[in-house]
Structures are given as structure tokens and as C-alpha cells.
Amino acid sequence: MTSRITTRRGWLGGLLAVLLGTMAWPAMGDEPASKPAKAVLTGLIEDQAGEPLAEARVRVGIPAIDMRFIDEKPNLHLFEAVTDAKGRYRLELDVLAEPARVSIDVLKPGYQRSSGTPMGGGDFRRVEMAPGREAEASFKLTPAAYYRGVVVDEAGKPLPPLRFRAYIRFAGGGTGWVEGTTTAADGTFEIFNYEEPRQPADEDADKGSISISHPDYVDVSIEDLFQTKGAERTALRVVMPRGCQITGTVVNLVGRPVPGVVVVCQRKGGEGRKGALTDEHGRFAIKGVTKGTNQVSVRSLPLKQKADLTVDFNEDRDLPIRLQLMPPFDEPERYDVLGMQVGDLTPQIRKACDLRFDQGVLILDPGADSKRLGIGELKVGDHFWMVGLHRVRSTREFVDRILAEAAEQDGERVSIRVVYAMSRPEFDANNTQYLDLSREDLRELEEVRRKAFGDGAGEK
Fold first, then answer.
1. DSSP structure string for 5-51
2. Does 10 have pLDDT greater than 80?
3. 3-state SS, residue 353
4. Which residue, of 60, 69, 187, 327, has the greatest Cβ tally within 10 A?
């Protein structure tokens, strides 16, 4: 049996690096003067018939997380062991100063990852490991198709690391997320989670598709992975085109540079989306732009100005952008909620700013410390539209629903599901997160409801 220790760095979480020396583990407390006793994890990896699986990779993550999404976790430390001919593994850790819960994923070509698919889930095993103690975790893996390949640039040079998303497009309609991963240091990738195709390869069959993205290259996709057979499955080669680079300066109506706004460039329909944030001088640079006709857009809610351009790109070029006034809209009343300033989103504001929803709670100022809420870094223009499983159409409904959800929970802190629409240089998306609120936060919300909306609760 062998074991390896790896770590993730930056947003490129899928890149595994072997640790060659002593390293600090900030997530696990201060480094002790001497190494603690080893924490040990052992187990058996088998197939569904109970046959042992040799050379399966048992991956352990600290702190414990959902292992389906490790490529999105920059501060995760990974440890890895490989099973022997009898399917057994043993992982010894001397970096834990105190007990800690760890998460586990098992990878073996020809079998689905034990953590399962993002759309369906799997075995979310979490085990407590402690210095001087031995824990056990055994798994049975489900057979699956296995794909492997390499991603290169137009000169044939491997491109690490790149984000991968593998999907299945169902014959009857709809799409499911099968796996998320990143390329390794040599540009290679592996996909474990597809079931073997059960229909003939025709227009009415399910299709496996992969989307590959990198900020410096044109996005690429493989639209029908299931058509590959035999050795083709483990010899995939993906070439990422450079495309075009556009640079420029965004200025306002009177010609002054506009810092901190998102410039988006994409094909009609949203394909090939790339974006960048302007710097303090209003400058921006976007790489990996698809050649041909693109839509370039900029929005500044505080200035009530925007720009929409249709531009043909066939080579690198400079593109000056001057904002124009948005259609007029009434400024919403401002409310102080959880350290933010928010207002009611209206159809008038949505139309003027090209937002996703015409009702909800619009962030006018995220405040100095929105990260403390545990739902990511919020920006002006983000807008909440769901709390729990309930649609919210106003600030009053937002506050009422948070308090109603919190009333069903005990403890000093509560966790409240929220969904908000967001626009970032990399993507436009709905973001589902969980507010991490203290009882003091809830008392402040009660005060907001009393002062701003009267003593009675709104519609729930």
C-alpha cells in the first residue's frame, strides 16, 4: 500500500502537488513543537459483488466537505492512499493535533466515484480521525464508464489547470451534472461518473458532454462523448484555441474612467462568455474571445449608465467603451439589513439594468463585511429572490421569511437557505447559499421589521 499527501492552491483546486517538506496547516491549529501521534485510517474497497479492487485511490479531505466539489475548495488539504492487491488501504497522518472530521472519496477507473454525481449524490462519508487512534471506512463501488484525455493549446503544449464540467443531456429533455474536476499538472483529466450508455448512438439517445474553460482561451466542449468506443475513451485530446484579446477603457457619460465594473463579451445567446473587471483607471483586458460577432456589455447601477455594443473580432484589438444613460427608473427606498443596504427590485429597475428578475431584494451597498454572512462576497446589483423554498418579492418578505425560517431552529446560530442572482466577470448565475446568522442578527432583523414595516409580520 502507498500513500500520498497533496494540497490544493488558489481557485485551481484540482491541481495536486506533492508536499516535499514540512508545511503549516492553518485549518488544523498551530503547529506543535513535536509531531503528534499518528491518526490512522484503514479500510477495504470492493466492487458490488464483494471482489477487492486493487489500485483504487482513497482520497481524504481536511476539513470535511462535500467531495463532489473539491475543485471549488481552495483551502482543502488532500491526502491519498492506494489499495493493495487485496483491496485494503492504510493512511497515516501526523498533522492532526486534535480530533477532526474528514471526508472521503474513492476513485478507480471503471467505477463511479464513491462521492457520486452532483445531480444524484453518493456516499457522503465523514469520519472522525484523532492522534493515536485508528478509524475504519470501507466502500463498495458501482461500475461506470471511464474517460481520460489531455488538454493542449494550439501548439500542442499541455494546459494545466482547467475547469471541467461533465453533463448528460437526456433524450427526453433536460440536463444533469455528472462530474466536476480540473486538469492535472500535465494537462490530463479523468472522468469517472458516467454510466455506460444504454441506448444506441442516435439522435434520440442520451448524450454525454464536457465543457472546458480557462480565462485565457476560448471555451471548448465535447458534445457527444458516448460516441467514443474502446481505446478512444482513454485517448481523448482537446485543443483550446487562443481566440482574440480585447483591451480598452470604460468611461462614463462625461469621459471619466469607471473603475470596478464588469465588462462582458459573448456570442449571441450567451455562448463563449468572457469577462473582466475594470481597474482603478477603467482599463480592462479580456482573453479567449471567440472570433466573429460578439455582444459587449457594461452596467453601472450606481451611475445609472450602461453600454451595449455589437463588435466583430477577428484579431486582437483595443475597444474604448463610453457609457450612456440607462432608461430612467425610480430609486428604491433603502433599508439597512444585516449590514447591507437593500431595496425592492421592480420591473422598472430590471428593465433599465437588464437584471434577471423583476421582483426581489436588490443590493444597493453590500457593506464592509458581507463575507461574515457566509454566502460569498456580495456586490452591488446582486439580488435575492428566494429564502428557504419560498419566493420573496420585497425586502419585507425577505426579512419576514428569514425570521420564520429561523424560528424553526434551535441553537445560538441559525442557517438559512437563500438564493441570489449575481453577475461576475466569469459568469452570470443563481447562487444558492446558507446565511450564517447569530441570535443578535435575528434581533436586529426584528427591529428592522418593527421600525420599517410596523409590528406585524408580512405575508409568508
1. EEE--TT-TT--EE--S----GGG-SPPSSPPPPEEEEEEEEETTS-
2. no
3. helix
4. 60
Pick from 270, 272, 243, 248: nearest CA to 261:
248
What ranges in 311-434 are assigned the alpha helix state H?
A: 347-353, 395-406
108 and 52 Cβ atoms separated by less than 8 Å: no
Strands (E), 183-325: 188-191, 207-214, 217-222, 236-240, 244-251, 262-266, 274-277, 283-289, 292-300, 305-313, 317-318, 321-322, 324-325
- Residue identified by cell 483607471 is 281
Provide the 3-class DSSP secondary structure of residue 99. Answer: coil
- Cβ atoms of 276 and 260 within 8 Å: the answer is no
Contact between 265 and 419 (Cβ < 8 Å)? no
CA atoms within 13 A of residue 458's CA, in its CB half-sphere: 19
| Mean pLDDT of the region 159-164 | 83
Q: For position 457, what pLDDT does the model report?
A: 53
Short-list 164, 166, 175, 179, CA closest to 67: 179
Position 340 pLDDT exceeds 60? yes
- Secondary structure of the chain: what % helix, strand, coil (to 5)? 10, 45, 45
Q: Is the separation of the CB atoms in 67 and 95 below 8 Å?
A: no
Phi and psi, residue 265, nearest 5°: -125, 125
Name all domains of the chain by residue range, CATH numbers in brackets.
Answer: 2-141 (2.60.40.1120), 147-240 (2.60.40.1120), 244-325 (2.60.40.10), 335-453 (2.30.42.10)
Q: In the structure grid, which three cell numbers stand for residue 175, read together?
A: 440536463
Decide: helix, strand or coil at residue 348.
helix
pLDDT band at 23 (very low <50, low <70, confident <90, very high): very low
- Provide the grid cell at 124: 457522503
Q: How far, in whole angstroms, is CA 408 from its chain's centroid?
A: 29
